[in-house]
What does this fold into?
Amino acid sequence: MRRLSIHLPSWLQDWLEILIPASQILLILFAAWLINLFFKRVIYRAGAHYALPRELLVPLRGVIRWLIIAATVLLILERLGVSATVLWTAFTGFATVGAVAFFAAWSVLSNLFCALLIVTVGPYRLGDYIELLDTAEKPGAKGRVVDINMLYTTLEDVTHREGALLQIPNSLIFQRVVRRWKGGIHAHMPDDAPSSAQEEAAAQALTTRL
It folds into this structure.
């Protein structure tokens, strides 16, 4: 490169100090875009082939995208003249802060991890009727699953007529015995099943009104 710059005009030699790093940065950005596109297609095809849930594919694509962005930023800073020592010091500093934040937010992170397990393992799905038991004989919270997010599993409490909702931390699901009825509790009840106490009370109230 130096031999080539000798044969160039003086005004172009000054621009080489800008054009060469700029072209390298553009190549890094273009390579990062190609890598991100490659992994995006791989994840999409894997999800379609193995019928993976969308709740799993979206966070996975996000993690890979942020890893590519972080690597791209580090390479660009290196091209701009930032020393490796400074980059390593900054990385270790961020890693230390991240470790402290990890232990401080352990309860939230455990709910996130359990949400991932719920999506992948599938102990229940939306529309199922579940009941959390402290033991095999002691009843607990129960209701129909109406929402599963990264922190809570929301149940529609069928024991209240007001339509109350129960928000149960995902980590608590794996600490209790879960009784599950696929598709709802009424899908597994025969037509001649005895009426529950609530149904009898509702029928008596309707008869009284008539």
